[in-house]
Design brief:
Elements (H helix, E strand, L loop, with lengths): L1 H11 L3 E3 L10 H11 L3 H19 L5 E2 L4 H4 L2 H17 L3 E8 L3 H12 L1 E4 L2 E4 L5 E4 L5 H14 L2 E7 L6 H4 L2 E2 L2 E2 H13 L10 E5 L4 H10 L5 E3 L23 E5 L1 H4 L15 H21 L2
Helix pairs in contact: 2-3, 3-5, 3-12, 6-7
Length: 308
């Protein structure tokens, strides 16, 4: 799957992943009204609104981008109906030819980690059949429990030719409380980055590993160090746009070939119509605003890479 992701990035010339992280305050009123008219102000109504909102965005941007990243918590808050919307979104994005990165941040040990890996990347035994459950192409994984939590994912990645992105240096302001702590004189995120490189050597695609890393755009200097430590790992870069990251911050995340990183923007794209820059589109044309936001992001990154 890493080979396919790289191919899609080359084809679209857009190292961009759109974070499908729906919140009810992002969903235009006309979509919410229609869903509530059909199902009432219920969890099912909320799930329907999320699904229709996502579908509109995907229809508007699928030809511009290689991948999407639905954040499962935004769906889980609506219970089973939210997870139905999550699954419908995953399936629809794959129908549109998009690579799907399940932002699930799982991490446990033993049989629990195995079950997480099977749920999101593998197939589960049902009688005599092996069936996919959520069936994303990649999943995000928390490495805090060590190799016990990672190995089950590596096993499934090898079996299914899928991938993972391991949290290394996250974009949130308090990430340094643990990730920057010195261990034998070195920050913890560097040690985790080295482990990512080691794990990745077990699962290689053509040029890059199935095992990638999450490194926030808000920490460009740290990204420069981690790029060197993980030369064969794709870096998923959150924090662009709404969290303060911009194209100029991203150059060190990429290798000299212009590959090696994919940049995420969530509400900066899916809620673009609520920004002053795109308010001319209006709520009725929210998906067109999202499309323009993708085009602007693509240009911003391209200019930054051209000028490095």
């Amino acid at each position: 799957m890493i080979n396919r992701l790289v191919e899609k990035i080359k084809k679209t010339e857009a190292p961009i992943v759109v974070g499908l992280d729906p919140m009810m305050k992002f969903i235009p009123e006309h979509i919410r009204k229609a869903a509530f008219l059909e199902y009432g102000e219920t969890l099912k109504g909320a799930g329907e609104a999320i699904w229709q909102y996502n579908k509109g965005i995907v229809d508007a941007v699928y030809d511009l981008i290689p991948a999407v990243k639905p954040q499962i918590a935004m769906y889980e808050q609506f219970g089973i109906e939210g997870l139905v919307a999550f699954k419908k979104t995953v399936d629809y994005c794959k129908e549109k030819g998009l690579v799907v990165i399940g932002d699930v941040k799982r991490g446990d040990i033993g049989s629990t980690s195995e079950a997480y890996a099977v749920a999101h990347l593998g197939k589960v035994a049902v009688g005599s059949r092996m069936l996919p459950a959520f069936d994303e192409d990649f999943a995000t994984v928390n490495p805090y429990l060590g190799s016990d939590g990672i190995q089950p994912f590596l096993k499934v990645c090898k079996e299914e030719k899928k991938g993972i992105f391991i949290l290394v240096k996250t974009s949130n302001p308090s990430s340094g409380e643990f990730q920057d702590r010195l261990i034998d004189g070195r920050p913890l995120y560097e040690i985790v980055g080295e482990k990512v490189d080691q794990w990745g050597s077990q699962c290689m695609g053509e040029d890059y590993s199935y095992v990638g890393a999450v490194v926030g755009a808000t920490y460009p200097e740290m990204g420069k160090v981690l790029r060197r430590l993980m030369p064969k790992s794709y870096i998923l870069v959150p924090g662009y746009g709404a969290q303060g990251g911009k194209g100029a911050d991203l150059v060190h995340f990429f290798n000299e070939d212009g590959l090696g990183a994919i940049v995420n923007s969530s509400r900066g794209i899916i809620a673009a119509y609520q920004q002053e820059k795109y308010e001319k589109f209006g709520a009725a044309n929210y998906a067109d605003a999202s499309r323009q936001a993708v085009l602007d992001m693509k240009e911003d990154i391209a200019q930054a890479l051209a000028g490095r």
